[in-house]
Amino acid sequence: MIVSTHRYVLLIEYDGAGYHGWQRQKNARTIQSCLEDALLSLCGQDITVHGSGRTDTGVHAEGQVAHFDLEHRWEPRRLAHAMNAHLRPERIAVLCVTSASQTFHARYAAIERTYRYRLVVRPAPLALEVNRAWRIAGPMHVDRIRAAGRHLLGRHDFTTFRSVHCQSRSPIRTLDSIDVNAWEDGRGLHINLVFTARSFLHRQVRSLVGSLVKVGQGSWSPERIADALKACDRSQCGPVAPAAGLTLMRVCYPDDPFKSVAASIRGAGHDS
Amino acid sequence: MIVSTHRYVLLIEYDGAGYHGWQRQKNARTIQSCLEDALLSLCGQDITVHGSGRTDTGVHAEGQVAHFDLEHRWEPRRLAHAMNAHLRPERIAVLCVTSASQTFHARYAAIERTYRYRLVVRPAPLALEVNRAWRIAGPMHVDRIRAAGRHLLGRHDFTTFRSVHCQSRSPIRTLDSIDVNAWEDGRGLHINLVFTARSFLHRQVRSLVGSLVKVGQGSWSPERIADALKACDRSQCGPVAPAAGLTLMRVCYPDDPFKSVAASIRGAGHDS
User: Fold this and answer.
1) pLDDT tens digits along A218-250
2) Which member of A15, A56, A69, A176 is catalytic?
3) How does the average pLDDT of chain B come out, rounded?
4) Strand partners, B161
5) Which pTM value belongs to this model?
6) How close, in Å, is residue A193 to chain B by CA atoms?
């Protein structure tokens, strides 16, 4: 018997602080298992949710993308509403559901991923951004971070900046951009580092951030980043930045699956 | 015996979610009591911490100001560091300490207070801004909120928009500005309402926001805000907006107590 299925794509937000990362594991709460549990209670079937990529324990998402197949056809807004009802009280929200053709794949069709890393530079501990940013003591020289970041752009062997547990066959990646946005607000110096690439290696962003912070603090020269990269030697990496500061912001596809339904994220009738 | 004392001023950040507001109470964790407990364990004395004003249960602060007197002289940066050590693991951070003359008073010397109220307009529940914003379903017309806000500016009797438990002798206040900042980020429509006045009545901002949201949703006309204000009748107020969206951003004084020590908030040696 051939069962025809319907493919749905999710846009998901989550607070990674309470989860052992994206990927389903035995005896651990993960984002993927919470979504699959919600679908099981909704449809009575074991459904596999395929993410655009894994996020580690403690890493957040403002725009994770995932897909799955259902036997029954659902009105996408109703499906989003029902999933959110079954996810309660998890810190996971389905922002949007759309239907897609069987050729769409959240992981393999993705052409660009954007991560943001948040730093707060000040002597005081964090009260509001706990679990959302890395608080470090100054001094911090933003121009040195920018100078070091330029050495990382383009296609390189990123062996130095990936976990020894990284399962990718190739350590070659192309880093398209690193934007360094810095501002002060009376509570400290805030620095957002925004990384864009087709794909990233395991722990790549946190490894890069830990080394860039060494440069910003003045204990590494910007050129040491270039040397560490060329060495292709994991021992040349600085400390790995904590997971709490990292957020998966956006995953891009040749044909944006949420383009036609952007209004459903926010309801109808806006103006500003 | 005359004991000369030294006055210190605090700039404080807190996540209000776990506290029964600012003011000390029996059998309840409050911001004031946590600060006083930290000073007791630090100095071995009961010290009263005077805030610029109370914040309600669940209300946050990015820039609350408070003062207190100590018999011993402290180096301000050391005092900040010691207080933060004694406050751990509370969600309260002392951003800055400065010394001040006995004429400074956190409450009575304040000439301007700024509050921000955060709205997120979308069908999905919040996963990242839980306890930090009010999530409401659309539609939401920002231009209507702006039009309604103009009726509230200036000096008025705000009886309609204060709690029946408000202890201020006069219901007259002067609202200097309401800034309505709105943007979309693919997760929803974000609206920050920023209110500035010399002082506010109890529940005034949340009462105003609840009524302005009625206008934004289209169920009240902008003019109904003017009529409600003129009525001086609490029953004409809309629903009171939840505490979670509200943050005390800034308290201003004729002579900024933190002016000379801004660098100590963020450490030395920044550039951007």
Assistant:
1) 999 999 999 999 999 999 999 999 999 999 999
2) A56
3) 94
4) none
5) 0.94
6) 13
Least Cα separation, residue B168 to chain A (angstroms): 30
Beta-carbon contacts of residue B41 (< 8 Å; ≥ 6 apart):
B86
- The sign of the CA dihedral A258, A263, A266, A267 is negative
Beta carbons within 8 Å of A4's beta carbon, 6+ residues apart: A71
The residue type found at B228 is: A
Per the CB < 8 Å rule, is B141 touching A15?
no
Interface of B with A in 23-52 (CB under 8 A): none
pLDDT of residue B1: 59
Residues of A with CB below 8 A from B183's CB?
A: 272
Taking CB atoms and an 8 Å cutoff, what residues of chain B touch A13? 124, 127-128, 187
Containing B64, the helix (H) or strand (E) segment is strand B60-70
Pick from B21, B203, B199: nearest CA to B110 = B199
Token reading at A22: 């994206």
For testing contact with chain B, the best of A55, A65, A128, A191 (most B CBs within 10 A):
A128
Cβ contact B48:B132 at 8 Å: no
Q: A56 an active-site residue?
A: yes
Write out chain A residues lying below 8 Å of B16, CB-based: none
pLDDT (0 to 100) of residue B259? 85
CB contact under 8 A, B124 and A250: no
| DSSP-derived secondary structure letter, B258 | T
Say yes or no to pLDDT of A271 above 90.
no
CB contact under 8 A, B186 and A269: no
- pLDDT tens, position by position, A145-156: 999 999 999 999
